[in-house]
Amino acid sequence: MLFVIKINAQQKPKNLTTHQHQLDSILNAYKTNNKLDSFAILAHDASVEYYKKRDFDKAILYAKKEVNLGQNVLDTLTYKKSIYQLGYFYYLNKNYSQSIKNLKKVIDSFDIDITTYKSYCQIARNYNKLGDFYQAINYYKKGLSKKTILKTSTLIDYYNDLAIIYYNIGTENSLKEQFKLLKKMDTLISITNPNYNRIQRLDNAYANYYNSNITFNYNKSKLYYLKILSNATKHKDSSFISISCANLGLLFNKKKNDSAYYFLKKGIKYAKPNESSNLYFNLAEYFYINEQYTESLNYLHKVLLQSNILNIDSSYAHVPKIKDLTYAIDRPFIINTLKDKTKNFLKLHEASNDRNYLELALKNITLADHLITTSRENSFEDKSKLVWQEAASELYMLAVKTCFKSNKPKDAFYFIEKNKALLLLDNISDNRIKSNIAVSILQEEQNFKNKISASENKLNNNPSEESKDNYNNLKIEYSNFIGSLKENYPEYYSSKQPVIIATIESVKNNLDSNTTILEYILNKNEGYLLAISKNDTQLLELNEVTNLGDQINAYLKLTRQPIISNKQLNNYKKLSNKLHNILFPFKNKNILKNKLLIIPDYTLQNLPFESLKNNTKYLIEDYELSYAYSISFLITNKKLKRETDNSFLGFAPQTFNYDKLQDLPRSNIEVQLINQELNGTIFLDSSATKTNFLSKIKDSKIIHLSTHANANDSISPWIAFKNEKLYLNELYTIKNQAELVVLNACNSSLGQISAGEGVFSLARGFFYSGANSVISSLWNVNDKSNSEITTSFYSNLKDGKTKSASLRQAKLDYLKTHSLSETSPYYWSSLILIGDNSSIRLKNNTLNYIILSILLLMLLFFCLKKIK
């Protein structure tokens, strides 16, 4: 990575870095005598010497002296390489922001050559260290877009770095990308002179791939690790011996194989000082599996002792302060260590009932939460933030478990909220404070988003090299654009604050006496419910969680079709009551008021709670229900200023001329009936185009779409208009000011579930673009029943009822006017209200006519009186 400039104009002094004072004197003499060429040579050589001694502070000092001479002294190529080298030294010194700044100067200020593309890849390394993994991927892809100009050895190194990022992200798609890169590395190594270190790294990457939870293959992983160990032993390579032993320990831990202990202890013998963290971490896991929790804690604390944390003592009970983490290295590793310490403290509490262990657990959780929060905030790419949010999900479950054992429901509220829709909350909070930026700049940002969205759609449909390059270029250009805002609008960025999590006190103070909040946190193995009313708070543990996912899937299978047989009915009643008892584990139900605000999690996000039965009655018969992504999001989103002129905007593309979409004969009638109530603007059939929708969406209080949709599409969720589809990623680029969006379309509440963030559905897309509330569907809706319910809903809404009261009454009216299989939840429970539940002030034409009539009568009265 280092450029060595060979200039023979003058013999450099010997032992450059032995006596820094002498070195500085010579440099000052060169400068005084205007021998700037000699000054440049000596400063450069000194920086290289200090780099070789790994004294990066001084390497940076002398590299800056060379760079500061500028192009008045240095030729263009030398100047460019000196800036690159300074950026590289900053990277080694862990000053990633300064490294990126210098490397971007290399890219922006000079003609494109090999150093330009190496700068992209070096920037990628910086973003990876900052935890912005997807931004790192963007830059790697740009740097590797001209592979032919890079040396094969350099290309292999970059492929390896990128493969590690994909492995650390750990999703199914990222692991596929990792495997593709490993195959490319394999090919390149085979056609060049095989290098021991590269072969070892490649084999280690393959072993790690097969050791991943998603692509786990015990035998293949073991075979690769043992091969690496054997080769390392032959070469007397202590580094790879310790690495392979650490990884074998991790692998054997997964199988609870005692061989883990042997290899981990062996690895520690060969590890260099302060390079045993992985070995200690895996050894701690071995002791945790074997229920030796104190030993586990001792080794986890050894990990922290090697993490460059200030003022840390040797006791595993010691919890570092936030300020002592300033220079800490490998934050993801520290987070996992703190998380595992928490698990051990909880186990010690279970064994001893000593509440001090709970306090220690909570302190470690708080510290890990801080690290995750700062890492999220430092990430530019939303996908990188999601990686951090998913990593935090297990931590927040541990936090709630600790709060439950400590009887601290108020603290539990904070951690449950941190586990829900933070990215969405961050996005709308960001939009609120952009009013300080010029409209033209905001429009430029919008143009970027539109281009990226269009490029993403093109890439999904045609993943050619050209479309990939175009997409990566746009992402990098957009990143640079946002970076320029930080310099040009510092008042905006200084006003940016971390997302604000509501406090339970403020929530209770503003909660009406008729409402109860039911907020869930759930994973495959455990779950909790926090119930909040005006005067009461209860944190409850859910039972039988391990089978809950299967039971919900079985329940949804029943509710997503008409119940036409006694067997189906009996199965439904039995399963419905069972789910009700699991999800409502109250000994005393006095906390449950008339209105229930449900914040679901995990598999509960696809469940219509109103269809659950408490003995013989549906839940909707006793309660008025609405849903939210989180309380903090609900509060923040409600504060957005919304001003519209049009009361109602309706779209009903009855027929379609693409993708063999079926006709929707009732959609036109439905929208026309609603419009008779609300007197807005409607677009039917041929006029219900995507273009008209995009041009009208910004200025309507209520938006109603009666059409096809699909949230299970392999590319992206979409909504169908007359001429073409609107994709979810496009929703993120537009704005609306709607008090309510009604998606009378199939599956519009469904989507990919991301741990700790929620469902990426069409409903979420409308919230992102500005909606205050959304009514959407959980499955393929029945056209006839849905039309009845939505028409009735609007009639209730016009009468002044709240949104949830209007929807509840519409569903109850449907149940009263239908019988037998037509009362199956399939027909009426698919539509749910998400978001704000207030009523909507609508223009009442009847009232206007009455007022106008009274005014005319008064005018007539005065006219007659005047005549008399």
Structural class: alpha/beta
Question: If strands are numbered along the chain, what order do they take across the biggest sheet?
Answer: 9-8-10-14-17-18
Radius of gyration: 32 Å
Strands, total number: 18
Biggest pleated-sheet summary: 6 strands, mixed
SS element count, helices: 36
Mean pLDDT: 87
Q: What coarse outline follows from CA principal-axis ratios?
A: globular
**Cα distance spanning the termini:** 103 Å
Low-confidence spans: pLDDT under 50, at least 5 residues?
Answer: 1-11, 845-849
Q: What level of helicity do the residues show?
A: 55-70%
Q: What fraction of residues sit in β-strands?
A: 5-15%
Give me a quick take on this structure.
The chain has 868 residues and is an alpha/beta fold. The protein is built from 36 helices and 18 strands.
Task: Describe the structure using short key phrases.
disordered N terminus; 868 residues; 9% strand; five-stranded mixed β-sheet; 36 helices; six-stranded mixed β-sheet; alpha/beta
